[in-house]
């Protein structure tokens, strides 16, 4: 009897291994195959002033966070931390106008296919979350901004390493997230823009700004997540802060209209303020990878709010990161402010952007104080929070002098300006 049981177990294990091996083989094939059969979409740049302005809105909030990141605005590519490290090592590409290292030699249609399908000029898949439902007009606007001659897209020779997927990563991208190999044969319209339109807000949240993907559990695309009202927007997508000098895992927060676990108590004005400045009504800092939507206009933000209010509340409480959430608490003590305002999260010794403080070296304290309160006025597109409503001029000056005192010290190995 025991022999039969052991034999049965052995057969089961063998079948599992064969199944796993087959699945891995299929996943590897899907990742490495050539997708030359995916047609180029009929999308060309929108170079009108309105198109370029709209393209900058979308690019700064969506593309720039991955392809520039780290307080930079030039999309030269770099290390990404949007996925758990168990899935691999991820790098975004250089998308400046450089003819060799960037996308200067790509056609508009090739860029559009990359956005929609995640398939590059050479017809190969890249592990970039695609935007299969972004409207043609918005994609054309993004390409128009990229090809507008803006100095951020001046040619750069930087070439980040290629992303490397682990076996679990190949399985996730091949099956859980899926590879979009469907050609766009018909134009995808953008819903009519209106502040009180649930449809327009859903389009922004699910097809443009990726709120649905990042704030819902699992690796399914936004369209699939929207089909699960019990979990959509309830948070729980895992990010890893360790490579950024953080304390470990960070789970995206619940943004349903739950008044106990989500943002149900936020007013429209509070929502707009948090999205633009990066500071919540409770004074907490929205840290990366959450972008700042400084280029989104009032109508877009109101539409997003309208959509969120239309969705089912979920009372699931998402635990905070190990080191807690930085809360803005202005103080006469600049060292305490450096910590409470969240500056230490990015700029303390050993953190990812420690060396950024060296950019203040030699500047007048008054100038640095103005930067602290309104960084976007000095560097449009920066992801640094806006502290104007939290820190008065005197406290900002005290903090600026404290920061300048740190610029004379050495910078930890491994950080980069």
From TrEMBL:
What species does this protein belong to? Corallococcus caeni
Keyword annotations for this protein, in alphabetical order, are: Heme, Iron, Metal-binding
Look up keyword Isomerase and say if it applies. no
Comp. bias (Basic and acidic residues): 326-336
Q: What is this protein called?
A: Cytochrome c domain-containing protein
The record, for InterPro entries, names: Cyt_c-like_dom (IPR009056), Cyt_c-like_dom_sf (IPR036909), Cytochrome_c-type_DH (IPR051459)
Which residue numbers delimit the Cytochrome c domain?
50-150, 329-407
The answer, when asked if Lyase is one of the entry's keywords, is no
Q: Where is this region: Disordered?
A: 315-336
């Amino acid at each position: 009897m025991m022999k039969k049981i052991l034999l049965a177990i052995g057969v089961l294990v063998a079948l599992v291994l064969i199944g796993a091996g087959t699945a891995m083989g299929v996943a590897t094939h899907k990742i490495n195959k050539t997708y030359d059969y995916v047609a180029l979409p009929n999308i060309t740049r929108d170079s009108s002033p309105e198109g370029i302005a709209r393209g900058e809105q979308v690019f700064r909030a969506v593309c720039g966070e991955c392809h520039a990141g780290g307080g930079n605005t030039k999309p030269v590519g770099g290390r990404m931390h949007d996925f758990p490290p168990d899935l691999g090592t991820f790098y975004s590409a250089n998308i400046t106008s450089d003819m060799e290292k960037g996308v200067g030699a790509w056609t508009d249609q090739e860029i559009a296919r990359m956005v929609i399908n995640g398939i590059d000029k050479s017809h190969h898949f890249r592990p970039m979350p695609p935007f299969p439902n972004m409207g043609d007009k918005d994609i054309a606007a993004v390409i128009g901004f990229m090809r507008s001659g803006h100095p951020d897209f001046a040619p750069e020779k930087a070439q980040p390493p290629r992303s490397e997927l682990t076996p679990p990563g190949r399985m996730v991208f091949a099956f859980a997230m899926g590879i979009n190999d469907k050609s766009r044969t018909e134009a995808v319209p953008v819903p009519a823009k209106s502040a009180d339109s649930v449809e327009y807000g859903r389009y922004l949240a699910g097809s443009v700004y990726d709120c649905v993907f990042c704030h819902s559990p699992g690796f399914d695309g936004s369209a699939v997540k929207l089909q699960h009202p019990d979990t959509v927007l309830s948070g729980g997508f895992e990010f890893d802060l360790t490579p950024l000098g953080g304390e470990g895992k960070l789970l995206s927060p619940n943004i349903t209209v739950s008044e106990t676990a989500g943002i149900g108590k936020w007013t429209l004005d509070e929502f707009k303020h948090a999205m633009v400045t990066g500071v919540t009504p409770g004074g907490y800092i929205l840290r990366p990878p959450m972008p700042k939507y400084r280029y989104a206009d009032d109508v877009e933000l109101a539409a997003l709010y309208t959509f969120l209010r239309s969705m089912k509340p979920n009372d699931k409480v998402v635990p905070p990161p190990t080191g807690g959430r930085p809360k803005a608490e202005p103080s006469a003590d600049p060292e305490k402010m450096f910590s409470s305002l969240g500056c230490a999260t990015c700029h303390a010794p050993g953190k990812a952007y420690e060396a950024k403080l060296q950019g203040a070296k030699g500047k007048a304290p008054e100038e640095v104080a103005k930067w602290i309160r309104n960084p976007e006025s000095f560097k449009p597109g920066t992801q640094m929070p806006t502290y104007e409503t939290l820190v008065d001029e005197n406290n900002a000056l005290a903090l600026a002098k404290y920061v300048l005192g740190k610029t004379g010290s050495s910078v930890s190995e491994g950080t980069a300006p």
